[in-house]
From TrEMBL:
Sequence ranges assigned to domain ABC transporter in this UniProt record: 4-229
Annotated compartments: Cell membrane
Highest taxon, organism lineage: Bacteria
Coiled-coil segments on the chain, per record: none
Protein name, as recorded: ATP-binding cassette subfamily B protein
Lineage of the organism: Bacteria, Pseudomonadati, Pseudomonadota, Alphaproteobacteria, Sphingomonadales
Residues of the full protein shown: 355 to 583 of 608
Length: 229
């Protein structure tokens, strides 16, 4: 599961200014697709529509053939995990932050959820290692470490579809590349949509979609796009 389609999707925040002007996308289940393009192109808007922060004003979005407007909000939010650019963490342990959202989780459940994410490869690389940091309070984490925790928090819910909305864009390119490499190593079988502004960090995506002024300007593999430009 996790086959996403956009069929002639239009969207406007204000009736007199269309932001998405007829988007067609077919993202096979399990594929990793990157959406790149200049600021203001509509990349975040695309992500917000999938999560139904807003509804399309024309066309439709389907997941596994079902219009997302016909899916309950809780089922939709169970299918899609979103990692935003700026994550706010609780001044608590890594374990608590990862299990956040699991209401009533016991400390043991929190530890095991965090361990699951660590096995997935996400926080092993934190300084001093996962085992010693998971229960520690008052953490001083760098931007990259925070985003690792944010991604782990989303992966713990095991959503079939993962959207990274510029989740690593604010980081230096080395840290960004490290995190993308971890993702590539673990994200087999999960539909992953990476919104990015640097083409260089999405080299391994199955397909890259270039969005410009609310339209798909081109799409292809990294190599195909380089050949064209
Ligand atoms: P990107 O992610 O590619 O930078 P966005 O999807 O954030 O682009 O924004 C696309 C356009 O929609 C921009 O012109 C932006 O100013 C506008 N926009 C974004 N959010 C809102 C909003 N809540 N209300 C009105 N306009 C918005
Ligand atoms: P991003 O591209 O990362 O989404 P933006 O700067 O476009 O960041 O948007 C930041 C916030 O401001 C978002 O919540 C967005 O919905 C809102 N926003 C952006 N542009 C507008 C706009 N023209 N009018 C109203 N809200 C906007």
């Amino acid at each position: 599961s996790g086959h996403v389609r956009f069929e002639d999707v239009h969207f406007a925040y204000d009736p007199d200014r269309e932001i998405l002007k007829g988007i067609d996308l077919d993202i096979p289940a399990g594929a990793t697709v990157a959406v790149v393009g200049p600021s203001g192109a509509g990349k975040s808007t695309l992500a917000r529509l999938m999560y139904r922060f807003y509804d399309v004003t024309g066309g439709r979005i389907t997941i596994d053939g079902q219009d997302i407007r016909d899916v309950t909000q809780s089922s939709l939010r169970g299918s899609i995990g979103i990692v935003p650019q700026d994550t706010v963490l609780f001044n608590d342990t890594i374990g608590y932050n990862i299990a956040y959202g699991r209401e009533g989780a016991t400390p043991d459940e929190i530890a095991s959820a965090a361990r699951g994410a660590a096995i997935a490869g996400f926080i092993q690389s934190l300084p001093d290692g996962f085992e010693t940091r998971v229960g520690e309070r008052g953490l001083k984490l760098s931007g990259g470490e925070k985003q690792r925790v944010a991604i782990a928090r989303t992966l713990v819910k095991n959503p079939p579809i993962l959207i990274l909305d510029e989740a690593t864009s604010a980081l230096d390119s080395r840290t960004e590349a490290d995190i993308q490499a971890t993702l590539e190593a673990i994200e087999h079988g999960r539909t992953t949509i990476v919104i990015a502004h640097r083409l260089s960090t999405v080299v391994h995506a199955d397909r890259i979609i270039v969005l410009e002024s609310g339209r798909v300007a081109e799409q292809g593999t990294h190599a195909q796009l380089l050949r064209k430009n």
